[in-house]
Amino acid sequence: MNHPAAAPPPTQAERMTSPAKSHARLAVAAQPGGASTAPPGALLFVVPLLFMLSTSLKAMRPDRPPLPELIPNPVIWLNYPDVFLRLRVRKYFVNTLLIVIPAIVGRRRFSRHRWRPMPARLRAPGKNVIFMVLLSTMMLPSAVTLVPTYILFAKLGWVGGFKPLVVPALAGSAFLFSQC
Q1: Are 70 and 50 in contact (CB under 8 A)?
Q2: Using CB atoms within 10 A of its CB, is residue 178 exposed (0-12), middle (13-18) or buried (19+)?
Q3: pLDDT number for residue 69
Q4: pTM score, two decimals?
Q5: Residue 55: its pLDDT value, please?
Q6: 132 near 70, Cβ under 8 Å?
Q7: Cα–Cα distance between 75 and 170 in angstroms, integer?
């Protein structure tokens, strides 16, 4: 078996780009949404983050200056441990876990089974109607389903507990629960 010889590495002259290639790259970078919009776009996300960090290191004073100061004077690092001492962070964390873990497990367990009864090759009476109802309820905006969902939860006696936050995930996000 004859194997073709490996190509030699490119020379310095071959690695240099032609003016046409560099012009094409500049044209792409200058287009809206090109590389030229990345730095201003990054600033839109970084500046609020830096301002939040700066504000978290300031003293709690009612006489704040009208203009925000980026670097606080004095810097108070004790604000972070103070949050854990003043607030019930452990309780908030446990409550979050009690809501999130069942919701994740429920969605992983039940949402994949939602579409299995209606594959395209299945011939069942009313298959198209059920499919259209399922799709139409998934397309409803959350503002439309908010009040009926609250009424349903109130009639079930679930208002004020964790069930309205967990059960829709366990239902596989189907029908009325799809926008909860």
Answers
A1: yes
A2: buried
A3: 77
A4: 0.46
A5: 86
A6: no
A7: 46
Residue 58's CB: how many other CB atoms inside 10 A? Answer: 17
The DSSP element (H or E) to which 61 belongs, if any, is: none
Rounded distance between C-alpha atoms, residue 17 and residue 26, angstroms: 13
Helix, strand, coil abundance in the chain, percent, nearest 5: 60, 0, 40
Measured CA angle at 67 (ends 74, 65), to 5 deg: 55
Token pair in block for residue 22: 């560099």
**Element holding 177 (H helix, E strand):** none
Structural Rg of the chain based on CA atoms: 29
Instruction: Tell me the per-residue pLDDT of 22-71, one tens digit each, with 9 for 90 and over.
Output: 555 555 555 666 666 777 788 888 988 998 898 888 887 777 666 677 78
User: What type of residue is 5?
Assistant: A
Cα(56)–Cα(78) distance, integer angstroms: 10
DSSP-assigned letter for residue 153:
H
Where b means 16+ CB within 10 Å and e means fewer, 156-172 reads eebeeeeebbbbbbbbb
Residue type, 64: R
Of 143, 120, 118, the C-alpha closest to 131 is 118
Residue whose entry in the numeric block shows the structure tokens 């109607």: 129
